[in-house]
Amino acid sequence: MRFFTALVFVGTALAGRLGNYEVFEKLPSIPKPWVLREDEQVNSEQNFKLRIHLKNQNVAAFQQKVYDISTPEHNDYGAHLSHSEIRRMLAPLKESFDLVKDWLETRGLLEKSTFEDDWVYIDGTISDVEDLLQADYQVFENTETGKLTARTLSYSLPSALHTHIDIIAPTIKFSIPTPHMSTIVKDYPQPPAAKINAIASSPGDIHDGLDTVACNSSITPDCIQALYKFKHFRGSRRNGNELALAGFLEEYAQHDDLTAFLNKYVPEANGSDFATVLINGGLNLQDNVAGPQQIGEANLDIQYGLALAYPTPTTYYSTAGRPPENTNYEVDNEPYLEFLTYLLKLDKIPQTISISYGDGEWTVPEKYARTVCDLFSQVAARGVSVLVSSGDSGSGSNCTRYPGSLKYTPDFPASCPFVTTVGATYKVVPERAVAFSGGGFSNYFPRPAYQDATVQKYLTDIADPNFSKYYNQSGRAYPDVSAQGVYFHTLLNGTDNLLSGTSASAPAFAAIVALLNSDRISNGLPSFGLLNPWLYSKAAGTFTDITLGKGSGCSQVNGSGFPATKGWDPVTGLGTPDFKKLRVASTGIDS
Known about the structure:
Distance between the termini: 83 Å
Low-confidence stretches: 1-11, 177-182
Radius of gyration: 24 Å
Shape: globular
Structural class: alpha/beta
Mean pLDDT: 92
């Protein structure tokens, strides 16, 4: 009896130290296009993986360090940080760990918890999580896709923990899995069937190796290499340089389609293949073994990433996020968190990463977006360049997403200042902005210093003041750069298809960065890391400025959308790459 009394006293003392429960995050209403499924009930005994991120120390100082080591004029340029150095700078307070351990102990969950760096993982049930967070999980349906998810509209924490925790997930973030879908433009008008097979051209149509007639109609690796002037450059397969393509949503890259693609379009790379890394139970099922799979995004990424960066070793990272087998609703789809935390635990991360997925920024809770962007800053500090597609809705197709006002709708993670965002162009003589190319200004992240002068010049000298009220002029502006994004020949189940979207632009530009990184490493220089300070300074004059075309807007604001203009603009960024000029800016070597 005295032992029981002692336990009660200890539990009461801990609870008193933690304070009363208070709301930590809350949504004002169910976010569109989700609705409550009153006929569906969550299974309280369903397995549920909860992630708790402890608040880092010295975040502002760390991120300034990232900018310093990424800025060519700085004395620390290229002095990338190790995993242990990052942890020493950012490690949460000991008090944060102690308080969270006390909290989990009072709720009987300490034995189900794992502490890794600044993350706490709880492998429990929905019932455990509802008790821990004083939350009510329900089943919601996305009316546009029919997908179901289990989420809560609010959750609470003991008051003493509010200053020690950044986010807890999955909780109020509904933008899963649909908004993480590939940014391939599924409804972009297809050309006549005859154009699926590359158009035959006469010798007079080929200028500096670029077939202007064929490449104006559809894109092959040869078009990209010739247009961006790296047809005769070859990186190294043995200097430690690597390229990674990120895959989510059960998109599976097919080995046999890659073999057929290389045989048809890049015969010099015949015999090449990609490695696969599986994260959080991810898979990479093959059609010829497991039956039909979702392969469009994955095949586009791997076929162009590997072919254009050849012979750079290339890896497909497949991060899981599907409903459990015993429910029809998703309970655990946090692909960015899983992917980035996995990378940061590696001793060596591929120097260039391409991500062709995105959400509307407004669909992502701000705390969540900031935590993910902080993780991108840590990846950049390791000497890694992350290329992200800018989205396929121009400045936003629906300006009523923000209650009570008309606003353009930026994308995430395109709006994070620690990634390089890639917009899209089409045609080759001359290149033009394509209407779907995403671009705009973040409502979460302020404009970083590296692009301040460039973007301010656009806002002051070029931007139409009639539309300035529809976007945050002080926000991080994107895209940073652009590349071709329309009618990419892609092999799907052995059949040649034409795919379009900034999903094509991102791996194409990433392959060019991978070759530049290879060149740097072979010449005794460090990899780039965060590209953007270099792009907006030393490399700014190396791009082909895109001045034709306009990004699409929304029906609620007549004339909305950003036009391509002289200099940087929010549809094509600084422009499209010229590899020869970029190489000179990077290593000083004129090829």
